[in-house]
Design brief:
The complex is a heterodimer of chains A (336) and B (293). Chain A contains 14 helices and no strands. Chain A is an all-alpha fold and 336 residues long. Chain A folds into two domains: 256 residues, MetI-like fold, CATH 1.10.3720.10; 43 residues, no CATH class. In chain A, α3 crosses α6, α12 packs parallel to α13 and α13 packs antiparallel against α14. Chain A is elongated, with a radius of gyration of 24 Å. Chain B has 293 residues and is an all-alpha fold. Chain B has one domain: MetI-like (MetI-like fold), CATH 1.10.3720.10. In chain B, α7 runs antiparallel to α8 and α11 runs parallel beside α12. Chain B is elongated. Classes of the chains: A mainly alpha (336), B mainly alpha (293).
Chain lengths: 336, 293
């Protein structure tokens, strides 16, 4: 899970005894969040506008006359001061006008729109499987603490969590798509205009990759927060009172696991978003990740800016949600 | 200096550290993890000398299976897969270690200082780091690589910088519990310079979480750099590289699976080793803290 890198700081949140003080931190975090997104947009714009080479020349090719190149430069607005370019771009973005693609002349919003839908569909389908599965496995591991089931699950999670997403994805393709069994298509090409869930077989392997990454991380948070409760005094009392183990597990321990799991889910969503670039490339899935790779290759500036801005904003908001939940409920998600 | 030494004796961590090293060496997870990493590092280091062919030498038709003298078959251009696996790890591992070190050093300095300063300075520092944290590390790297081109030094710096905010957060959290302890407050009150306090009192107490971070960061560095090569924006052809090999040969996954599976297996073994080390160490630290409290 290479892309866990950026969120792990939040994921490894340590116990902070001063929960009350952190409660007061939520509003400043949200306000600074807006400022940070603004700074992010500045970084995205100015980094990409500095693309090497003469962009109009790149688009028109070597045969173009200098007049044509200059005309396109004016048309793209590259002749104006960078600050003016940025101001126009960001006001456009806020109004929903994302400019036009340099490759096919279509509005960026149209190009990006269905890719966002595809990518989010992929992650959401994976999360709908991963979250319930994590709860089942987390409860199972907590109930069978330190026994064979628990150890086996831990072993699997250490191995799967360690694998970079393209390694995990490629292994799944080798196992289920091409080399060993040929059950599922090794590529997930969704025709333009089709909705991803019209092609369930194509989705199996990319979804499975994300589910495996997410579940092996999430179930441990569920397990850890269940064990916190099982170790607590009031559960000890409940046990002594003679309450059944099942009742203790489901009525007392399970609700306690919900908050950290929601928090972790937003983290996992964020992580999947980062992993998406590689996973979509691997499966040829037409989402934001492949669009990012394509727009870098074709120097399609407006699309590149839009994609990175969308990914960064979503990623940031997911992390912020996780942080705010963590501050509000004082949960900790440190793995045991 | 005698004053400083007497301050040091109050700190409990220094005394625990010897015990820590012993526990790490006796723990099954950490030792297995270190052995796996060491194995792959050795493979990457001496592999180029053992390779039967040059990594760029064409030895047969593309995508042929294993045969005499070509143990793992050939790749997309008919080059020897075994020789490319043996030669393809050095750059990846050197780059990953360098990126990890950059992230750890920058992150620790920023995190610990931020915890020590506290207040507004702390808040602002963490928010500035949030800007980097808003990008998934691979997207962060792609943003700059798309502009500046893929060169190894740039990749190392980018991945290192991408690690920095997360490391800083963890180290800040760890340092936070130390800077409020009596002996640190006392050292501050009698005017010992901040740098001396951070180095002699705070740092020894946060070595354990730093080592856990080191394992995790190394794992993610390898993953990110290999993934960038896989996408075509990392290590460039014709260099032999495990991530690049997975990408070059993946269309022949059913025809010549060894050309893909062997390189990704080596990457996987290394990252599993790093994760085992971090997990094992994390458990030891949690247990030690639990016993000490």
């Amino acid at each position: 899970m290479a892309s866990l890198a950026n969120t792990a700081g939040a994921g490894a949140t340590r116990t902070r005894p001063n929960g009350r003080r952190r409660n007061g931190m939520i509003l400043p975090r949200v306000i600074s969040g807006v400022i940070i997104l603004f700074v992010v947009s500045i970084i995205v714009f100015f980094t990409t506008q500095a693309l090497p080479g003469d962009l109009p020349r790149l688009i028109l090719g070597v045969d173009a006359t200098p007049d044509q190149v200059d005309a396109l430069r004016v048309q793209l607005g590259l002749d104006r001061p960078p600050l003016v370019q940025y101001a126009e771009w960001i006001t456009g973005v806020l109004r929903g006008d994302w400019g036009t693609s340099l490759v096919n002349g279509r509005p960026v919003a149209d190009v990006v729109g269905f890719r966002v839908l595809n990518s989010f569909a992929l992650i959401i389908i994976a999360m709908l499987i991963a979250i319930p599965l994590s709860f089942v496995l987390g409860v199972l591991a907590a109930a069978r603490r330190d026994r064979a089931t628990d150890h086996a699950l831990f072993g699997v999670s250490v191995v799967v969590n360690a694998l970079p997403d393209f390694v995990l994805g490629t292994l799944l393709v080798a196992l289920f798509g091409t080399t060993v069994f040929r059950i599922f298509p090794p590529v997930a090409l969704i025709p333009v205009g089709d909705l991803p869930w019209w092609h369930p077989a194509s989705l199996v392997l990319p979804v499975m990759t994300i589910v495996l990454m997410a579940t092996t991380y999430l179930y441990r948070l569920v397990r850890a927060s269940m064990l916190d409760v099982l170790d607590s005094d009031y559960v000890q009392t409940a046990t002594l009172k003679g309450l059944s183990r099942t009742r203790i597990l489901f009525r007392h321990a399970l609700p306690n696991a919900v908050v950290p799991a929601v928090q972790a889910s937003s983290l996992v969503f964020a992580v999947s978003l980062g992993g998406l670039v590689v996973i979509e490339y691997l499966f040829g899935y037409p989402g934001l990740g492949t669009l990012l790779a394509d727009s870098i290759a074709t120097h399609d500036l407006p699309v590149l800016q839009a994609v990175i801005l969308i990914i960064a904003a979503t990623f940031f908001i997911c992390n912020l949600i996780a942080d705010v939940i963590s501050a509000r409920f004082g949960t900790r998600t440190r793995n045991r | 200096m005698t004053l400083h030494e007497s301050v040091h004796t109050v700190a409990p961590a220094a005394a625990r550290r010897g015990g820590m090293a012993r526990r790490v060496l006796k723990n099954g997870q950490t030792t297995t993890g270190m052995a796996l990493m060491l194995g792959i590092v050795l493979l990457a280091a001496i592999g180029p000398f053992l390779a039967p062919h040059l990594p760029t030498e064409i030895v047969g038709r593309p995508f042929t299976g294993p045969s005499d003298g070509i143990l793992l078959g050939t790749d997309v251009l008919g080059r020897d897969v075994l020789s490319r696996v043996l030669s393809g790890g050095r750059l990846l591992i050197v780059m990953s270690v360098a990126a990890t070190l950059i992230g750890l050093v920058l992150g620790t300095i920023i995190g610990v200082t931020s915890a020590y300063v506290s207040g507004l300075g702390d808040f602002l520092t963490m928010r500035v780091l949030d800007v980097i944290l808003a990008f998934p590390s691979i997207v962060f790297a792609l943003l700059f690589v798309s502009v500046l081109g893929a060169n190894p030094v740039l990749l190392v710096v980018l991945v290192g910088v991408a690690h920095t905010p997360s490391v800083a957060r963890v180290m800040r959290g760890a340092a936070m519990t130390v800077v409020t302890r009596d002996y640190v407050l006392w050292a501050r009150s009698i005017g010992i310079p901040p740098f001396t306090i951070l180095r002699a009192e705070v740092f020894p107490n946060i070595v354990s979480p730093l080592m856990v971070e080191a394992g995790l960061r190394l794992m993610w560095s390898v993953g990110t750099i290999a993934a960038l090569s896989f996408l075509g924006y990392g290590i460039q052809p014709p260099t032999a590289d495990w991530g690049l090999m997975a990408s070059e040969n993946r269309n022949a996954l059913s025809l010549q699976p060894l050309s893909v599976v062997v390189p990704i297996a080596v990457i996987g073994i290394f990252t599993i080793g790093a994760n085992l080390f971090a997990e094992g160490l994390g458990r030891i630290v949690a247990r030690t803290e639990g016993a000490g409290a």
